Hints:
Layout: H1 12-27, H2 30-53, H3 56-59, H4 66-72, H5 76-87, H6 96-112, H7 120-138, H8 153-175, H9 186-195, H10 201-219, H11 227-261
Helix pairs in contact: 1-2, 1-7, 2-5, 2-6, 2-7, 4-5, 7-8, 8-9, 8-11, 9-10, 10-11
Amino acid sequence: xxxxxxxxxxxxxxxxxxxxxxxxxxVGKAFDYRISMISIDNAVELAIxxxxxxxxxxxxxxxxxxxxxxxxxxxxxxxLDLLEEFAGNQLTGIELGDIxxxxxxxxxxYHDGNGVTVDPEYVDSYLxxxxxxxxxxxxxxxxTEESSLPSSSLGYLVSKWxxxxxxxxxxxxxxxxxxxxLSEPILHTVDRLITNGILDSKFRSRLRxxxxxxxxxxxxxxxxxxxxxxxxxxxxxDELIAHLWLLIQLKKSENEEKEKGI
Length: 262
């Protein structure tokens, strides 16, 4: 997934910005949280523009014209629309709505400056989203660095959600031959798996509740975070992921048995 060019020159800018954000987040002061949030958002915006501006032979697929990219670059929502159009299949585990919410928060921090604070949980949450995005689009991978791992329950929730989305789509790939549109909502993928008898409506109901709660928690950037609610959703996510892993292992065992019988 992504162009997989970890050491290529065009990945240096987004990676440096993310490294800068991680350094400030670890300091643990209000000023540093603000700087970290701004730096994360700058890394996200630069990564998107970099990916969309790469030549086709590097990106592997068609991209927007230079004119369309220049027009969208001055308006962040337009840039996200362009990303969804030309990189939908690179957005596994990423909700563009999350990025837009955090970009608005970044703008508030940047323009209002003094007196505006940001909860470190939300900074960590955006950091986890940014890491997935940079990995998917540009092959930039920071997960091996201890300082880039989730440092909060909300950041952990974001990283767990990305795992769940990936495993749902892995299960779909193993059972259903039809190519999946990776930009479709995860509940639509689950519906297809239910139709084919692979998942049941109980799993969907639990996932829908988790999805709604996740969105509310991540997007409520102007209210104090309810740690208990986050922990409950993380626990539910762990159980749903464990169920998916079991189904995946069963399918792998079934395929191995078929191969032995040939």
